[in-house]
Amino acid sequence: MGSSQSMSEEVRELVSKTGFSSDQIEQLHRRFKQLSGNQLTIRKENFNNIPDLELNPIRSKIIRAFFDNRNLRKAPNGLADEINFEDFLTIMSYFRPIETNMDEEQLEHCRKEKLRFLFHMYDSDSDGRITLEEYRNVVEELLSGNPHIEKESARSIADGAMMEAASVCVGQMQPDQVYEGITFDDFLKIWQGIDIETKMHVRFLNMETIALCH
Amino acid sequence: MAFKARGTRLKLGFPAWGLLFLALWMLPRVLGTEEIPGHNSHAKEGFQIVTFKWSHVQDPYIIALWILVASLAKIVFHLSHKVTSVVPESALLIVLGLILGGIVWAADHIASFTLTPTVFFFYLLPPIVLDAGYFMPNRLFFGNLGTILLYAVIGTVWNAATTGLSLYGVYLSGIMGELSIGLLEFLLFGSLIAAVDPVAVLAVFEEVHVNDVLFIIVFGESLLNDAVTVVLYNVFDSFVSLGADKVTGVDCVKGIVSFFVVSLGGTLIGIIFAFLLSLVTRFTKHVRIIEPGFVFIISYLSYLTSEMLSLSAILAITFCGICCQKYVKANISEQSATTVRYTMKMLASGAETIIFMFLGISAVDPSIWTWNTAFILLTLVFISVYRAIGVVLQTWLLNKYRMVQLEIIDQVVMSYGGLRGAVAYALVVLLDEKKVKAKNLFVSTTIIVVFFTVIFQGLTIKPLVQWLKVKKSEHREPKLNEKLHGRAFDHILSAIEDISGQIGHNYLRDKWSNFDRKVLSKLLMRRSAQKSRDRILNVFHELNLKDAISYVAEGERRGSLAFIRSPSTDNIVNVDFSTPRPSTVEASVSYLLRENVSTVCLDMQALEQRRKSIRDTEDTVTHHTLQQYLYKPRQEYKHLYSRHELTSNEDEKQDKEIFHRTMRKRLESFKSTKLGINQTKKTAKLYKRERGQKRRNSSIPNGKIPMESPTHDFAFKEKELEFSDPEETNEYESEQMSGGIEFLASVTQDTATDSTTGETGSDVPLTGYSSPREKLPSWKPDQANPTSGPPEKPLLLLPACLQRPWTQNYSSLDNRGISTLPPASEYTKPYEGKPPETSPKTNSSQKNPPPANPGYGPENKGDSANPKQDPPAVGLKEELVGPAPKALPEKRTLLNMHAHLRSAAARRVQSRRSFHRPKPLRYPKLQKLASLPQSCHILPHSLEQEETQL
């Protein structure tokens, strides 16, 4: 393709870092500029301009994930104020579909990365544990789209899920044992048997998308 | 299954009938007598008490008998698991049909029964397709819609064209000999033999259990290719009747246009009727009994309507089922849903059985057989080869776009799973012999193809799937976490698509679900249904319900809920805990048990109960548990006949009830066990040991027993425990109440638990009350000065709103006690014998919380009044002490309950209490109390009077 010849050093670097093709990067770059208003970085407010996002019940969590230092692989905690295009791509690369030629190890790695992203989203205080409180929070938000579900039900659902998690992860619990929250290892356990690879991915198109028009 | 009645058939048929229906041996003989010539003249002679009118019932009778035979055959097949696990049922039915057909033929020498297109298309096919649509896993289906459509449209066209053309090519080479078949006829044949058959696919794949994606692709293809088949068939049929030379380019274009009209039109009809159906079920609240009927009638109408408009009927009814399912399932009642489910499955499975059996029977008719080895064999080869080639080509194309790649193994199964079936047969029978000279050859080839694919491929696909290690579908227990994460994924993915500015699958789904929620659901669902229609809520509900049900089931299994009593043996708890997460029913019982027993046993009170398993306790506990879980176990239905009322809605109520309770139980146990809020071993142990002295301890404030140094300790411990108690409930209290009580949680957490789980308390506002608790260690020294009040205070640490009804009087009581009571030793003694007895009470009342707030006042009064009826000497003291332990459980109770349950349970507790008190003094006191004004704050006064008497 024409673009590959004119591929700059910068883009090549991004390709190797994120695994996106140069076309996809170009594509995403255009979108990035659109979102940022031709700035070099995106701030949280920029995301508010996406009309489709408005209806998403967990949009705040998702937007937050974009600025989460853990996801950006910059720091063990905290939030970034603004992200540049590379960071943007880093986040997007979590959602890249798995390659067909991946070996077992790469698959496992890919899987873990994807799950880590999700885990970070739940674990809002970056302490490596999803506590009941955090879980409840997420569930409440998650179900807030349905006006018929009251907060209490959301909470009790979170409680139930936490209980389930505890029974999956710890199994036999002593009566006085305390389950403090879901650690990442527990999180992996919960996800065992569900192929996240097939779930957590977005098709990034190579070609011009219709979506560009908005 | 047309019953071509011929005049002589009956007579000739008798031996056959006799052979066929040994069970109905009488019938032929009776029939025989009917035919005796003199019979009729006899009948004319006068009024016949009994007349035999076979011809009157003949047709429906025969139909019913055939259905019976088919159904009985199914029973027979399933008698042997070995056979059915190897041979697919459809193959067995075909063989049976062949045998039966052979018998009929041997007797009759006429093929009396065949599968006619009319019967097949009007009566047998719709239920099967409706069933497929109505139970279609929508998400999976639409997730793979692109793939399915490609296979269904392009794949079918490809198959038809290549098969037809190749056969024509071979025909031209002369191998087949002289046949009067033109190119168009070959194409016509190709088009009818090309389509994968939904009935056959469903029948075989249901037994194979391949993974969902593979199944939906093959099955979806077989459903959606109907439009292509219908169009191709019609086009070529009309071309054939036109004559090859008269077909113009315009006709070809028309044919292509008609494809879109037929497929989209059929789909549209289906959607319109689905809309209608959903709308109608929204208003069937008062005609529940005919509710299920609407589902069938309206979907059937969609089928007939599109048939009438010569659109794709299969598409219409499929999409009718697919689109209406969500709303219909939400709208109709639980019972109706079950009815629909079973009726649909019954009809579909019955129709399928009959189809295959009659395919077999129809084959036994020499008049249709025209054998042409080359043609038949080549057809078999071509359809298999071209299917495989088509699948590989299309998959190659698809895999460029698919997220989940279709691998070689999948492709093999897909090509091999291209079964042909009754649709092809019915279409070929429909051909006009005058126009298509080689109809009989086509028919016999089709039969061979169908038999080959269904029997041979059906037989071998299972071993093949096993040999290739195709990913099987696994049955998973619904898990809450999974659902929640799944939901989160949906939102994340659609958000990512939004952000990255793409219109993808997730984007579309998200938009659709928004539209659905905002418009469609509001329009098509009952208001009440809109509420409960959340997947996650459903799973949650399901889990809870399962818990409750298996809890009771387990109880029954062990005999009369004995296990609830057996908390005295610790191992049960342990066993249950050790049970790994279940997958089977049996396991789920233990899972449930783990949940629930843990509630029972890890409960503060219950820990103690393990030690002291006293009859009384057990009975109380069992009773309450029974009452709680077996809500009106043997309620009596009114056995009145009514055509319009099935049953009362008690079941639903019960379900709801169980649901609510289990939900609480789960939460409760969760809080107490998993979050380890208050049960440190130490306290538990101490608690157990000292439980009996508890009451005494609470009297420490009196300062009458300072010499018993250990008691201080106990007192302290005990108080801790007492606090942990309401705390446990606190979680869901907070759900029900405004949260005024929540401080208790944080209080106990600070004091009673060493664990650092701040979770539960973190959102909880601390009130001023918490401070005394937090300083608990600091008031330990207080015990040196036993007369000081502080130890008392904890007991009063109750949410204000809850306190009101009785703590008020209680506290006043206490104060009085402190000031006026004589040495405690005297009082405590008589009481010491009792702990086991009272503890059960607290236990039970705690675990099966009786009543709720509203009406609680009076009852509570009664409760506290009862103790007062105790022997005057001890009574007062005990009064002071007794209610103390009870207090918290009851508080807790207050929060839990369902109002309508309340009175009964409370009364029971109450009556038990009073029952165990010394009787003689009861009545006088009661009378006395009765004479007193019945309000809370009066009580203290009455006590005061007693005190002064003392």
Automatic annotation (TrEMBL), chain A:
Membrane topology summary: Lipid-anchor
The GO molecular function terms of this record are:
calcium ion binding; protein kinase inhibitor activity
What region holds the EF-hand domain?
110-145
Q: Which UniProt keywords apply?
A: Calcium, Cell membrane, Cell projection, Cytoplasm, Differentiation, Lipoprotein, Membrane, Metal-binding, Myristate, Nucleus, Protein kinase inhibitor
PROSITE patterns per UniProt: EF_HAND_1, EF_HAND_2
Question: What is the protein name stated in its UniProt record?
Answer: Calcineurin B homologous protein 3
Q: Which organism is it from?
A: Sarcophilus harrisii
Tell me, in a sentence or two, what this protein's role is.
Functions as an integral cofactor in cell pH regulation by controlling plasma membrane-type Na(+)/H(+) exchange activity. Promotes the maturation, transport, cell surface stability and exchange activity of SLC9A1/NHE1 at the plasma membrane. Promotes the induction of hematopoietic stem cell differentiation toward megakaryocytic lineage. Essential for the coupling of ERK cascade activation with the expression of ETS family genes in megakaryocytic differentiation. Also involved in granulocytic differentiation in a ERK-dependent manner. Inhibits the phosphatase activity of calcineurin.
Q: Which GO terms describe its biological process?
A: cell differentiation
Identify one Gene Ontology CC term for this UniProt entry.
Answer: ruffle membrane
- Assembly description: Monomer. Homodimer; disulfide-linked. Interacts with SLC9A1/NHE1; the interaction enables an optimal Na(+)/H(+) exchange activity.
Q: Where does this protein reside within or beyond the cell?
A: Cell projection, Lamellipodium; Cell projection, Ruffle membrane; Cytoplasm; Membrane
Q: What is the lineage of its organism?
A: Eukaryota, Metazoa, Chordata, Craniata, Vertebrata
Q: Which domain of life is it from?
A: Eukaryota
Name the protein family: Belongs to the calcineurin regulatory subunit family. CHP subfamily.
UniProtKB/TrEMBL annotation, chain B:
Q: Name one GO cellular component term.
A: early endosome membrane
Q: InterPro entries from the entry? A: Cation/H_exchanger_CPA1, Cation/H_exchanger_TM, Na/H_exchanger_3/5, NaH_exchanger
- The UniProt regions of compositional bias labelled Basic residues, in chain numbering, are 682-697
Q: Where is the Cation/H+ exchanger transmembrane domain?
A: 67-467
Catalysed reactions listed for this entry: Na(+)(in) + H(+)(out) = Na(+)(out) + H(+)(in)
Among the GO molecular function terms of this UniProt record, one is: identical protein binding
Task: Give the signal peptide as a residue range, or say none if absent.
Answer: 1-32
One BP term from GO? sodium ion import across plasma membrane
Topology in the lipid bilayer is annotated as: Multi-pass membrane protein
Q: Where in the cell is it found?
A: Apical cell membrane; Early endosome membrane; Recycling endosome membrane
**Record's keyword terms, sorted:** Antiport, Cell membrane, Endosome, Ion transport, Membrane, Phosphoprotein, Signal, Sodium, Sodium transport, Transmembrane, Transmembrane helix, Transport
Mind telling me which residue stretches traverse the membrane in this protein? 61-79, 91-107, 119-136, 148-171, 183-205, 212-236, 256-280, 349-369, 375-396, 408-429, 441-461
Compositional bias per record (Polar residues), positions renumbered to this chain: 751-760, 805-818
Region of interest (Disordered), residue spans: 681-711, 751-890
Tell me the Pfam families matching this sequence: Na_H_Exchanger
Would I find Cell wall biogenesis/degradation among this entry's keywords?
no
Family listed: Belongs to the monovalent cation:proton antiporter 1 (CPA1) transporter (TC 2.A.36) family.
NCBIfam families, sorted: b_cpa1 (TIGR00840)
- Summary of the function given for this chain in its UniProt record: Plasma membrane Na(+)/H(+) antiporter. Exchanges intracellular H(+) ions for extracellular Na(+) in 1:1 stoichiometry, playing a key role in salt and fluid absorption and pH homeostasis. Major apical Na(+)/H(+) exchanger in kidney and intestine playing an important role in renal and intestine Na(+) absorption and blood pressure regulation.
This protein is called Sodium/hydrogen exchanger
From what organism does this protein derive?
A: Sarcophilus harrisii
Identify the gene encoding this protein. Answer: SLC9A3
